[in-house]
Amino acid sequence: MNTFDSISTRSKHGFFLPLLRLFSIALFLLWLSPAIFASTSEKNHPTLIIGDDLHYPPYSYLDENGEATGFNVELARAIGRAMNLEVEIRLDEWTRIRQALEDGEIHAISGMFRSPERESLYLFSSHHSITAGDLFAPSGTRINQLREVEGATVAVQEADIVAEYLEAQDLDLTFIEVYNVKDALRLVEEGHADYAGVLKMPGMYLIDAYEIDLIPQNLSLNTNQYAMAVMPDNRDILLMLNGGMEILKATGEYQELYDQWLGIYEEPDPREFFYRYRWIIMAVLALISGLATLVILMRHLIRRKTEELLSVNTEMEAAMEELIAMEQELRDQLDQLRKSQEKLHSSEEKNKAILAALPDIMFLFNDAGYFLDCHCSDEESLLYSPDDFLGKQIQEIFPGTLSGQTLHSIQLALETKELQLFDYELMLNGETYTFEMRLTPLNEKEVIGLARNITSGRRHQAQVEYLSYHDQLTGLFNRRFIEEELHRLDTPYNLPICVIMADVNGLKMVNDSFGYTVGDTMLKTTATILREHCHQDEIIARIGGDEFVILAPGMTNESAEKLVKGIQHHCRYTEIETIELSISFGWDTKESEEKDIHEVFKNAENYMHKKKIFERPSMRSKTIHAIIKTLHEKNPREEEHSQRVSDLCIKTAQVMNFSDHQLNEIRTVGLLHDIGKISIDESILNKPGKLTDEEYLAIKRHPQIGFNILSAVSDMKEIAEYVLAHHERWDGTGYPRGLKGESIPLQARIIAIADAYDAMIGERSYRQSLSPDEAAMELLAHAGTQFDPELTELFIHEVLNIEW
């Protein structure tokens, strides 16, 4: 049942149906209770972990106090109260929340759009709202249908359903993926994208909240149901969510939440307006009816009295009729004259308004080419004052070629009775402007000319044509251009034709570690190097995120190898954020007409991928060392801390009789456990005082970032798991996955103790260091909650050799 169904049911049947509905839900939940609460019989209030998007207002977001809020969040909490459940809300980037649901870290997502693809992955509750996506564009932009944005650059939220819908359209769009709706809108506002393809309601909310100068296009993209989602093996949780939803709808609490968060963004319902003001409307109608009755009655009385008077004197009646007829005739003539004057005045005003609104300059010419009249909304746009050219011939005002063309077009317009159109250019203040002249006959001797400045339109057209064939980031050609050039160059005259494929190694790791700005610098540097080493007739393009291609007519395989060696030599002396630039190449050459150019392209790509397999591990290893070096340069204290933690981990592992392989492994983990801090702002890492809630959330992301960096290296996947878990707690309240007890890897539990101990005895500007005995007491006080109790005892007595 949707919102309006709920309202109409209550208004028609009072409270009988809601009470009956509550009774039915209660019976239904009693029937389900053995299955639902079997695993939580020892707890009065089982905890349900529900996640959602961190940046999706008004559905889910953090308020100014850093608290989770929004329609989805408050609805989840209300369901928890209705079902007697403890609800824990977790907000994070959308892609991470979906991954958390699939990994079992959370039980449900409070808001996800349904689609056939998603229904194959998740189970969905009954929907709690219906909405659609839209395109947001700068003010003044108006789109009537989606096909008009073909070839444009669109900013979208990563993994969002609107992005999925747009990607499925055959529109040749260029997508810029960001983590949240706000960043997508900002990219359009700052001119980095043409449109933002996002959900309409969050877009409207953010535009209002942050005063973003964009407007929706009202295209209603992919209207869909918005519901809660669980994994297929959590069907019992889905039943609880649906049951709680029904209780909220029956009690009216759902409607209150909906009106509070979403009602203000909906179009007003006329039915509700008439229902609310029905008594006033009825009173006005009654008053109008009474006045109409009074008028009819008075007319009747007047007519009756008139008939009585007319019956007294027949001659007076005839005279009266004649006077009435004359009066009516005069009145009709007066009305006709008044209407004619009004039409004339309206026509004059309309013509004035049209002329004032037009950006054109209007001229009136006669058949001999004389200026008879001129009108424009802004006289500053005229080259001369009207007094200087009215009454003069075109040859006296316009340059020679333009005057001849204009006079010829005037004569053609009068002879053919058809519109004549031509463009011309004028040099004004050292800059060339383009104008369009339209000439149409007014009568047998006169022609109206409309001159319009079309310079900006022509420049915009040229810019659009440029962007349709060029990569926005590097300025190189794009895939569309390359596909057309393959057909153009595939001729016997251009043989041999060499195709060189290039792929930048380690771009994803650089983006994860240093941010997309550094990754973009790496791509732009690559483009610069390729330009420096290629000749003018060789075509360079960026055809993917990290892929480039060079089309070289007349180049052999030997020349291609020489070119590649020169580029790679240049790369060895090029660093971006201390990381050596590394590019993998592959090439093939079409030497005969029989060989398919697309097969050559594919061979070059396959060769490049084979070389990348051998070059990638070395690049990733170098990148990790560069990341560690950069982190230590940002915060020298981190280097000393990592070394001490590594030493403490080794001592603990030796007491526990770890193998040599395990000792080397835990030494590496200790050195790399904080590698994820590379992406955290230096001001936060070196902040002398207490961190804010927002800064603490940024710090809490470093285990996940470290995992992303290390898991990209095949022989560090286990180490990546230990780094990911080193801030988990023994009681299950740690992060990022909330692991508990022995489900936390042993190596991660060892790191947690060593990391905490070194932090307590180390120097901090915002607090005094603890002595080893005091730090040991703190460890012992948190054994069994934060730390493994057995490992804590072993660490204190056998590693620190402290006895009390």
UniProtKB/TrEMBL annotation:
It comes from the Bacteria. The keyword Transmembrane helix applies. Residues 302-350 form a coiled coil. Residues 616-804 form the HD-GYP domain. The keyword Coiled coil applies. Keywords: Coiled coil, Membrane, Transmembrane, Transmembrane helix. Gene3D superfamilies: 3.30.70.270, Hypothetical protein af1432, PAS domain, Periplasmic binding protein-like II. The chain crosses the membrane at residues 277-297. Residues 495-624 form the GGDEF domain. This is PAS domain S-box-containing protein/diguanylate cyclase (GGDEF) domain-containing protein. It comes from Tindallia magadiensis.
